[in-house]
Specification:
The protein is about 45% helix and about 15% strand. By secondary structure, it is of the alpha/beta class. It folds into 3 domains: about 10-170, 3-Layer(aba) Sandwich (Rossmann fold); about 175-350, Orthogonal Bundle (Arc Repressor Mutant, subunit A), CATH 1.10.10.10; about 365-460, 3-Layer(aba) Sandwich (Trna Endonuclease, Chain: A, domain 1). Strands 2-3-4-1-5 form a 5-stranded parallel sheet, sandwiched between helices. β9 and β10 (about 395-405) form a beta hairpin. α3 runs parallel beside α5 (about 85-95), α5 (about 85-95) runs parallel beside α7 and α10 (about 185-195) crosses α17. It is globular, with a radius of gyration of 25 Å. It starts with 7 loop residues before the first helix and ends with a strand.
Length: about 450
């Protein structure tokens, strides 16, 4: 993947901070493999920049390694040989070097230094206030451990709280950019790729040489020597302490238990004991809590369902984690067969719904309706479920839709079923106007297309 795709907003933020008069301090963080280092490398390629990757060694070892980087950066052999025990002196050397252009100082995996010495954020706060703040310099503190980066740099209790001039939480790349990664693939295949790689650049890169999703899974996930085979364990082990408890919760949700009561029942624990674990997984962007879009008070709603937000983790916990015994005993083909039988209905079809909800915002921005909705999601009650529901409270407009990741074209029966289900939605029933939208990966029957051509309240989308 030679081209740098997406991240326009993040790049613009970095350029704006660089152009700022005086100093700037940017906190850039996000889960592993999401492209933080690549984004920074792209940003600094035409700038005078010092890039230091912190390690999990002691603070003193990091300081010694940073000293080497500074000596190279300002071309100072005396500094390289000096016995320096202070971070302050190293940053002062950079400022005193009187460089021709504004320097950019990047400390990647910043949280490791704070992990080895909990006082380091206070040390860096002093360096910022006394040495860097009044100079023409840009500092980027970057990290992959979300909980540590938040506690060390962003939380109210952190010594660095209030010092940042910008913060960027880098997330996965949206589906709409997948065509740029796989320019020759059909849309169906793009969604299948997205259903596993989930917008994580490193995963996309690993899948980029495979046109068939099952071949890509066999080569990159079922292969025990691939980093993806044990990736969830790697992702979670440094973020949380009780990794077994978190794995059990995610596994339960992947098995179809979305209500907190169902999760607790499967794990044989009290509902009240799950709250802190669920909230941590939400904070890590691994889970999300959904409520019907028509709920007036989402936080207090008792209809909340928990969903695995990360596509790869959803796939891994559904197909890999419960089948590790088969894989590790040499029966990868058996597991691949199970994946082939269940992937579309249990994974791709649900991810397609997410893609369609993303598409809804694009249609909204393109004035596809004579109004703009303010929120979109799903709707359900005890008997019915609707894939797409969007609300325009100001104009009393309600959009309802279905998403079908089928092999055959969608016909009139799907529309009629949706129209029937609309009567179950109580939201402003007496004064609303209902609009309909259908999404189909395999197109529509001629009969349905003819109906849509004669109605202004119905949109057919891919």
């Amino acid at each position: 993947m030679a081209n740098f795709i997406d991240r326009q907003k993040e790049r613009a933020t970095l350029e704006k901070e660089y152009a700022r008069s005086g100093s700037s301090l940017v906190i850039l963080y996000g889960r592993r493999r999401v492209g933080k280092t690549t984004l920074i490398s792209e940003f600094i390629k035409d700038k005078k920049a010092l890039f230091y990757l912190a390690s999990e060694e002691s603070e003193s070892q990091n300081r010694i390694a940073f000293q080497e980087k500074v000596a190279d950066f300002i071309n100072n052999d005396l500094l390289r040989a000096a016995d320096i025990k202070s971070w302050d002196l190293l940053f002062k050397q950079i400022i005193d070097a009187k460089l021709p252009t504004k320097p950019v100082i990047v400390i990647d995996e910043f949280q490791y230094i704070g992990k080895s010495n909990s006082a380091f954020p206070s040390v860096f706060q002093r360096i910022w206030e006394e040495i860097l703040k009044k100079q023409s310099v840009m500092v980027i503190l970057c990290g992959s451990l979300i909980s540590m980066m938040e506690s060390q740099t962003l939380s109210y209790s952190s010594p660095l709280y209030g010092r940042r001039t910008a913060q960027i939480r880098l997330t996965q790349i949206p589906f709409r950019y997948y065509r740029e990664f796989f320019p020759y693939n059909e849309r169906r295949n793009l969604i299948e790729m997205y259903a596993v790689t989930g917008g994580v650049p490193k995963y996309i890169e690993s899948f980029s040489n495979c046109s068939d999703i099952y071949q890509a899974i066999e080569d990159n996930v079922l292969n025990q020597n691939s980093y993806l085979y044990d990736e969830p364990n790697f992702l979670l082990q440094q973020e949380v302490s009780e990794i077994g408890s978190y794995f059990s919760i995610i596994r339960s949700i992947a098995a179809g238990n979305h209500k907190i009561s169902a999760i607790a029942s499967m794990l044989e624990v009290k509902v009240t004991s799950l709250s802190k674990y669920l909230q941590t997984l939400i904070n890590l962007d691994i889970l999300e809590r959904e409520v019907p879009i028509t709920e007036e008070n989402p936080e207090k709603s008792k209809k909340g369902l928990y969903k695995i937000k990360d596509n790869y983790l959803r796939f891994w916990f559904a197909f890999i984690y419960p089948n590790r015994g088969f894989i590790e005993s040499g029966n990868e083909s058996f597991v691949l067969d199970k994946i082939q039988k269940g992937f579309i209905s249990s994974q791709a079809a649900f991810v397609y719904e997410d893609v369609c909800r993303e598409k809804m915002w694009e249609l909204n921005a393109n004035s596809s309706w004579p109004f703009c909705f303010s929120k979109v999601g799903r709707w359900w009650n005890s008997e019915e479920e609707i894939d797409i529901a969007a609300l325009d409270p100001d104009g009393n407009n309600l959009i309802l839709g279905e998403c079908k990741f089928w092999q055959e074209p969608v016909g009139v029966s799907v529309l009629r079923s949706l129209e029937e289900k609309a009567y179950s939605v109580e939201w402003r029933k007496q004064k609303r106007k209902v609009w309909f939208i259908l999404f189909s990966i395999s197109g529509y029957t001629d009969e349905l297309q003819q109906i849509a051509a004669n109605r202004n309240d119905l949109i057919l989308s891919e």
